[in-house]
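Checklist before submission:
- one chain only
- standard amino acids only
- sequence pasted in full

Submission:
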Amino acid sequence: MQLIADSGSSKTDWRLLNDDNSIEQLKTSGINPYLISKKELLLSLKEDFDGKTFQPIKEIHYYGAGCGNAKNKEKIKSVFSKFFNCNNVFVEDDMLAAARASCGNEPGIACILGTGANACQFDGQEIEDRMISFGYALGDEGSGNYIGKLTLKAYLEDEMPDILAKKFKANYPEINLEYALEQIYQNPYPNRFFAQFFQFALNHQKERYFFEMISEAFQLFLEKSVMKFKDHQDLPIHFVGGVGYNANSIMRMVLSKNNLKAGNFMENPIAGLTLYHKNQHS
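Returned file contents:
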């Protein structure tokens, strides 16, 4: 049996590929290797899998944020090996998860466009090139936190059209300048605070104001990442993440304007990863 996991800070999606080709699925708490010790991770797995039994596991493929770091990879690998009694544990980062899920074994450009943003050029086996990712403070153009930040700023600066500003106030009655500054500068995860406002932009993406805002953000993302890859004009461009998936009609339009090929749009990578690993053993 194979165990596949795709994890972020808030949740982990699991797929169990049984020897008879049946698939089981499970959703548990998230894993951030930067913020959790080996002992805490072991306790978390014990809680998440309490009372669950399954066939002996031959291979584990774990993909997660923060797993480009060798120390974090080793942390996940050692705990998983012990807990699942499995010697074949492969730990990779979320960018490879997006590439394998969306491209399979074919060359392509894989983009993560969710709360944050990232992209790579994939040759069908390995990542050939990656964009420089500065995170929410200096980059993440086109992401949920980037568009959410623009939405919040437009509201606070009275630049949002009146009818939309009234709807925003009704949706977020607690938002004012003092509250926003406190959330941004005095609390952890300001990127998540910004990202929540993307939903408002998404819900009103047919309004000209937000249509143009999202279009311009997507254009900037392509310029900062995709268009810097040497084969960007020849390869299909795939997207994994809620922002690209839920605003795919705008992204398809922006891709077309730049004479770029639209590929797959996935809300999360777990289904694509399951298919990828299933095919590797067929």
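Reviewer check: The mean pLDDT is 89.
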